[in-house]
Amino acid sequence: MKLNSLYSSVFYIIIIVSASFFAFISQNQKIKQKEVYYLTLLKKLFDKWMLYIVKCFLRKDYEKNQKLFKERDYSSSLLFVSFLILTTPVAVRHFTGADYAAYVAYYDGIKEMGSSFFIHNSLEVGYVWLNVICRFFFDSYKSVFVIMAIATNLFFFKIMTFEIKKISLGTAVFVYGFTLYFWGFIIIRNLLAISIVFYALRYLFQKKPFKYFLSVAFAVLFHYSMAVFFVLGILYLEKFKKYRGIYPFLILLMVPFAHDILLYFIREIKWIVPKVDFYASSFSNLSVQFGMNVYIGVFWLILFSIFYKKLREANDHITLYFSFYFVAVILSLFTISTPIITRFIFALLPAQILLMAHLVRVFDKKMVLKVVLILFIFVFGINETRHFINEETYHMLPYKTIFSK
């Protein structure tokens, strides 16, 4: 029997807040210098565990190796605890998530047909081969969920630590918790591809376009929708900079014809994505939809716009993140149910994680405003979490059921 909505919500909120807390203390130098009780205790326990491993498995003298751990930097260890807390519920689960049964069916189909499953179905080749590998090494469909959860969260944590000098890491983890975390229970292929693409943005910032496009190609192996980032990457390159001002004007001119253009494009690529008929039929019924989520998105967009100059001064990557979030909000004004649009919106939402985390850091010298902003994000995030948990598929199962076959 599933836990009810209230208990499930409390469980997930504890998970997200705990992960955010460990991410926060991993970054906060003042807390580490003061050696507060809980951190000191954690260090001692970690020391004893590590030294025990050294003694038992490496056959090294216990006393001699104590010096190796006295000056240890615990930031990475605390961040790993944050990662573990956030990843475990997604990785180790049983019939939690709307598409759980479908992914089990995919595994069984791939188990019977092998890589040829790709030829007869619309699943991306990367996901098919992952199932083939898991079948060979683990012979369990649960291994697919574990690997996908670890890989996805690993890339998202890498995204956040890439900007660690400019952001509040605890805020970033918390925002990830209510922004994209719950999609890890459902659209696991899409979310993994999104995490790879956002990880790859560093290569654009570092002027390494080949690595960026190679990473996007790898992401496309897990979800076709990420192919749009090839175009976005080209627009970002310096050699195309002088043409960037033309693109918004051309897009504005095409707005009246956008529906017909996109519908034609979808139908023409049917030979690439067999499932495109589903997207085409949904898109043909497109209607403008407004809801509370849209207004909330516009509110954050206005807030980011007000403080854009300060954000830009702190980190010039903000321009790209802001552009992504702007496009996500604009698209959400048109639809929140059409698959081909919502998948792209999901792909832009990591920008919200980084923007909120940057915004908190901007107020470091204005503690009152910083506290107010953090409390506002906290309340907003808890409300968003409750919104997700109202779905039956997110209700947690008893532990004995989670670990059952």
* Low-confidence blocks of residues: 32-36, 62-72, 282-291
The geometry reads as globular
Helix content: over 70%
Euclidean distance between termini CA atoms = 16 Å
The count of helical stretches stands at 23
> What would you report as the Rg, rounded to the nearest angstrom?
23 Å
Q: How are helices and strands ordered from N to C? A: HHHHHHHHHHHHHHHHHHHHHHH
In total, the number of strands is: 0
Please state the average pLDDT score: 77
Q: How does the major sheet shape up?
A: none
The share of residues in extended strands comes to under 5%
Class based on secondary structure composition and strand pairing: mainly alpha
Describe the model:
Helices cover 72% and strands 0% of the residues. By secondary structure, the protein is an all-alpha fold. Helix 10 packs parallel to helix 22, helix 11 (188-205) crosses helix 20 and helix 17 packs antiparallel against helix 19 (318-334). It is globular, with a radius of gyration of 23 Å. The relative contact order is 0.12. Residues 32-36, 62-72 and 282-291 have low confidence and may be disordered.
SSE layout and pairing:
Blueprint: H1 5-27, H2 29-34, H3 37-57, H4 67-70, H5 75-91, H6 100-113, H7 117-120, H8 125-137, H9 142-162, H10 169-179, H11 188-205, H12 209-220, H13 228-236, H14 246-254, H15 258-268, H16 276-284, H17 292-306, H18 308-314, H19 318-334, H20 339-348, H21 350-362, H22 367-389, H23 399-402
Helix pairs in contact: 1-5, 1-10, 1-22, 5-9, 6-8, 9-10, 9-11, 10-21, 10-22, 11-12, 11-20, 15-16, 17-19, 19-20, 19-21, 21-22
